Request: fold
Amino acid sequence: MSAYKRLSIRQKQIVWAWLFLAIPTLFYGLIRFYPTGTAFVISFQDWNLLGERTWTGLSNYQKLWNDPVFWKVFRNTFAYLIIGTPVSLVISFVIAYHLDKTRFMHGFLRMLYFLPFMTSAVAMAWVWRWFYQPVPIGLFNNFLASAGIPQIAFLNSTTNALPAVLAPAVWAGLGFQVIIFMAGLRAIPGSYYEAAKIDGVGWWTVLTRITLPLLKPTIVFIVVFSSIGFLRIFDHVFNMTTNNPGGPLNATKPLVLMIYETAFSSFDMGYAAAQTVVLFLILLLVSLLQLWILKGDNS
Amino acid sequence: MAKLSLKKLTKSYGKVEVLHGIDLEVDDGEFVVFVGPSGCGKSTSLRMIAGLEEITSGEIWIGGRKVNDLEPKDRDIAMVFQNYAIYPHMSVRKNIAFGLWNAPLSKAEKAARIEEVARILDMSELLERKPSQLSGGQRQRVAIGRAMVRNPAVFLFDEPLSNLDAQLRTQMRLEIKKLHQQVGNTIIFVTHDQVEAMTLADRIVIMKDGHIQQVGTPEDVFHAPANTFVAQFIGAPSMNMLNVTGAGDEISLSSGIKMQPGRQTQTGQPLLLGVRPDDLSVDDQNPIVTGKVVVREPLGSETLIYVSGPQGEIVAKVPGKSGVKVGDEVKLGATPEALHFFDTETGDALV
Ligand SMILES: Nc1ncnc2c1ncn2[C@@H]1O[C@H](COP(=O)(O)OP(=O)(O)O)[C@@H](O)[C@H]1O
Ligand SMILES: [Mg+2]
Reply:
């Protein structure tokens, strides 16, 4: 105690700062950095979860590089990202933009859009699987049939399956993005629009020159957030294709599902860890790139 | 040419009527200030003139055209908002250019117009800056600039100075007045600050609860207030009000003092006597009130004294060097011309 008393005010502040920092530091160290570090280590090892860990150098990465399934999965993952992010961004903005102007049942409508976000992915996947069934069960194909349009094999076609799996994933995330967009729209002072109205500026110009630029921080957030979501897509795919996860013929398999199967079906932990490291690097790169692009010209 | 007329203008939000028939004629080039306490309907009136708020009933005429059903952009007006409404992501030049969005001018003409406005407002060197790099007063000037490029028939200002600190406010007030003398457009200016209203206006419109109380020059409303509200709203500190009873050519105060106000009154009629702190002098031969000084507020050239007596507390403004101290007994009086009489019931001025 007397040692503490002899410290200067500045030194005491440092002691307290470290004391307060200890909890988050410990938390991050134990819960985040330690497992992450371990994953990196395991990616250079061979381990079947039960036996010994043996060092294998870069062989896991070499295997990955030469694995055609990995490249297929890699392409799928980016397809989810490149289709999912812009589509969900545009749809959620359009909904938020109109919902913001609607006074009629505003709260109720907003709740309706938010509902899917709170629904379990499993339940949702099953409903969508029912939508996608052939006649006479599936909703969509029944529609097509009554309109005289040929049937579409949604989940059984290697070309249609990925978009068909992506649709509910986009749909599920919309509510959240709509809420964020609406908060962003609300934060723009009404007088900005009134000034534009007096100047006689048309709605399209107002949208592109005022609303969207002022929404930039919101857009950055949503793009980064939903990109990470689509790069890590798993539960929707897994539940939509339970009989043959990631099928047909790996047409819908994302990276996380491949990691899951490598780790817990094949028990090849080293290989799974190597895939995880690759996913981590992709996430890091994509996020940094987006932040850089979207924030770059802000000066 | 750019006269503005409001005819029996009313505004209701749902079932609640907030403006109850506003009639006003504004001449070309006039600087008119709407003043009144918060919530009296100043902004609503202004926004109806701008076309941002629907008109419930009545008519608005600008420059000989009825504008009730015209879009804001077609009304030949420009507005400066309280929060300036300048776009943070655009340079000053782009912000000002926004005012010219629909103008039938070539690119070069627009650029020249922007330069000219920037020169008048003394901000030519600020044109490439972003609003975040400007001070409050400069932002204010950008907002005025955006309105000015349109060269509108009528400028509308909604409390444009209330976000500025006191010193800057005084400075911008002066600049707006100079600007008006220079460009000569009609201006409608809304404020809740009576000093701003007095200093800026050619004519003041004093409002309360959605009614116009008085319209007149600053001198009119100060020297001949139409009712007790105007009398007490204009001038600081507020006019003192005393309950008196008429008695022929005399009046008697509740304190027992009798005095000749220089006019005839109905015997036994209760009246309100109003007298401005500035018009009271100490040690008067014909005092209205006597009492003890309870508080002194020196303001430099003048000192405010609060005098407590049998008729209640009243405030007087005396010369700074008068040497009145707290605890002094004083007799306060005023010349008959400085006395204002009001009806006790209606508050209307008696002439
Ligand atoms: N959008 C609105 N809906 C309902 N009442 C309103 C609305 N805008 C203003 N009011 C009411 O109208 C009255 C006048 O408001 P306003 O013109 O803003 O006053 P001022 O500008 O003089 O402070 C106030 O009582 C206010 O509550
Ligand atoms: Mg107002």
Remarks:
- Helices of chain B lie at 42-50, 92-98, 107-120, 136-148, 166-183, 194-200, 218-223, 228-233.
- Chain B has two domains: 4-233, 240-343.
